[in-house]
Specification:
eight-stranded parallel beta barrel; 8 helices; alpha/beta; TIM Barrel; single chain
Length: 216
Amino acid sequence: MSEIVPTILTNDKNLYRKQYEDYSKFTKRIQVDICDGTFAPSQTIDVSNCWWQEGWAAMDLHMMVMNPSAHLPAILKIKPSLVIFHAESSENLLSVFATLKQARIKCGVALMKQTYPGRVAPYLQAADHCLIFAGTLGQQGGEADMMQIEKVPLIKAIAPNIEIGWDGGANLKNVRALAHSGIDVINVGSAISRSPEPNKAYTELVADLDKVGVVI
């Protein structure tokens, strides 16, 4: 069964806190997008400005950053549940993953549209999660590149037990198709954050996953 996970992307510490508190009322898992202004063109709040309260929604960090190791001290301090770095960053991620695992933090690798899973097999074999990135870096509200679904069986062939996430353009028009394709975690940004009733939007997305048939 696929899981809908709301995402937060902001450069405003107060908005981050408000969205986190609001989302925690109806979900047990939230993804926070962090952009460094280099790897991704926009810049968000820094990891040091993030917080999560134990017993509330678990925090996944999607790190759109060029130098993963530079962010590890701040990450280890807040101890999120999962940290996802991009395969296309400037560092070898295996040592970064080892540091996270020592701290009992799950590690993930994100793949940009142009990245073929077979080229990063060691990362997939070492990671707990693979994020198929099908949107636009540092933005919410873009169109989903549904062709990226073709990566699912390729990833599973390399790492059969890995959790597969999707990020980019997920909404009521495509969440059922994404769920039926083998995606475990569907991260949703603007379809929830721009709704006047985020709770209702989330509930509608979850309900759509249970419907029979695939929306094309």
